[in-house]
Amino acid sequence: MQLNEYDKMFAFENDYWWYRGLHELVESCIRMMRLGRHLTILDAGCGTGRSAQVLEPYGTVEGIDYSTAAIDHCERRGLKHCRVGDLNEWQPAADVYDVIVSLDVLCCKGIRDDREILEKFYYALRTDGVLILNLPAFSLLRRIHDAAVSIGRRYRKGHVVRELRRLGFKVIYAGYRLPLLFFIMLAKKVSEKVMGRRTIVSDLTPLPSWINRSLLAFHRLENALINRGVRFPVGGSLFLVAEKTRGMRSSSQDDIIKDTTSGESGDDRLKWAY
Questions:
Q1: For position 36, which CATH number holds?
Q2: Does any domain span residue 107?
Q3: Residue 109 falls within a domain, yes or no?
Q4: Which one of 41, 94, 138, 156 is most buried, counting C-beta atoms within 10 A?
Q5: Which helix (DSSP H) or strand (DSSP E) does residue 40 occupy?
Q6: 43 closest CA partner among 51, 54, 35, 34
Q7: Do 159 and 259 meet the contact criterion of CB atoms below 8 Å apart?
Q8: Can you list the positions of beta strands (E) in 120-180?
Q9: Which residues of 125-143 are buried (b: 16+ CB within 10 A; e: fewer)?
């Protein structure tokens, strides 16, 4: 990621509709799974630390990020358990975490093998521990923003569901988020092509406060629908919640996680524990 993007992220994360809506959705997952408090949580790819900060009331939150600039911002937030580290080289202990959260990290160009990182997550989670993922969706939406924030791959639901199951996860929820944003992003990509835009800059820009509040209200409405099991056929992001179970792993090695076919199979029924 371009270094200036970390400064923008730090400046925007507390109030910007996209971040607040996502963080609130993650919080609702932890509450609805009845995981309780005093959890051991890992924010894998913690960025500038806002998600870790939001999760602190639920237990001890550790963060890891390969960028020293990101960890510097975590320290500015007063986070004491965030450190510089590369998930590619990370060697976790077994059965350590109750929750692992990883928001828009597996997609990054710096991740050499996203399957291997998922295997590490499985290994590091305790039995009945929960993995929460957010991933950019649909390779069709690749555009200049992706280059600015180092997005190297986008995902489809069916492939990620099958890969999680192969590893031994029970998929609790899998669905696309922000369906309206899908069409806005697609239109922006077309406009970039038509206008011949070449400047590498992300979509993260200041908004008038009333627009930001309106988008946050829309995001919260969508979160409420997701929590009730509503699924959207498309979206700008893919959101998944999976649980490490005691069952045997699937022996299939043929599934792939990246978006190379259009299959959408997989049992992703909502099973929140109210």
A1: 3.40.50.150
A2: yes
A3: yes
A4: 41
A5: strand 39-44
A6: 51
A7: yes
A8: 125-136, 169-177
A9: beeebbbbbbbbbbeebbb
d(CA 169, CA 117): 14
| CA distances to 40, 42, 129, 239, 248 from 173, in Å | 21, 20, 14, 8, 20
Instruction: Give the chain's domain count.
Output: 1
Residue whose tokens read 């997989």: 266
What is the span of the domain harbouring residue 133?
3-244
Place of tokens 């056929």: 233
- Separation CA 131–CA 71 (nearest Å): 22
User: 75-115 pLDDT, tens per residue?
Assistant: 999 999 999 999 999 999 999 999 999 999 999 999 999 99
What pLDDT does residue 196 have?
A: 79
User: What is the sign, positive or negative, of the torsion defined by CA atoms of 105, 109, 115, 120?
Assistant: negative
Bridge partners of 64?
Answer: 44, 83
Query: For residues 12 and 199, what is the distance between their CA atoms, to the nearest angstrom?
Result: 21
Tell me the C-alpha distance between 17 and 81, whole Å.
26
Is 42 buried (19+), middle (13-18) or exposed (0-12) by CB count in 10 A?
Answer: buried
pLDDT, tens only, 188-239: 888 888 887 777 788 888 899 999 999 999 999 999 999 998 899 999 999 9
For residue 161, tell me if it sits in a domain.
yes
In a domain, 250, yes or no: no
What token pair was written down for 266?
């997989």
**Residues near 196 by Cβ (< 8 Å), separated by ≥ 6?**
none
**Residue 158: in which H helix or E strand, if any?**
helix 157-167
CA atoms in the 13 A half-sphere facing the CB of 228: 7
Of all helices (H) and strands (E), which one includes residue 239? strand 237-244
